[in-house]
Amino acid sequence: MRTRKSARAGQYLGLLAYLVFLAFPFLWLISTAFKPPRELGSLHPTWIPKDPTLANFRQAFDEQPLLDAALNSLTAAVGAAVISVLIATPMAYVMARHRTRLARAATGWVVVSQAFPFVLVIIPLFLVLKNLRLINSVPGLIMVYVVWALPFALWMLVGYVRAVPTELEEAAAVDGAGRLRTLVSITAPLLAPGIVATALFAFISAWNEFFFALVLLKTPEKQTLPVVLTHFIGAEGVADLGPLAAAAFLATLPSLVVFAVIQKRITGGMLAGAVKS
Question: What is the pTM of this model?
């Protein structure tokens, strides 16, 4: 019993240390966002601002078009999430239900493709978008995000489809339902938690993405929020720390809010699926 209690206490301590490790950058970001300039330059920084101010937020909005950049990021993220799910769902169904050599090869390629670095694919993508006249456009950026998110979305949804009992689809086939009807009426509702999780992944990936947006978007009014945040760093590499922290804090909030709202539905859907007969 003592050994079990000691092991459990060690697990809890390890988990607590990991949570502190994850939370430290965000908490320090919040603290920095509300500090006046004299506290930012202090040799003895504190966690809690002694004289909190909103001046950093006002300066951030005055210096950079944060609202326009946030709208561009939102458009790209929502578009990538929706299109990725619409494409990945029927493809995952086929790959999960028809376990041929081609399907296994496609699954292996999906996993391997995640190891490709951004730099390896940026030149081919740039040339393709140039021929399609989609350089420096949000639709072109959405296309890139869909291409990048689709392999992982497929990999996630294949696992969810395989968890759906085939007996349900066989019963629907006996009742005269075709493949498309079965997918829409039977399988898709049971895949709701997986679809939501996949859409959330694609949304957050597109919202936080920086490299593709930096290369493909040249006009300031079309740039996304991560790219605009770099404008708070001067030519000599000196960062305007207060406004940068305020803008970065605002840029982080949508991802946290979306996850907080959706995670209960994901958990609830998984638990509901676990007790289906």
Answer: 0.80
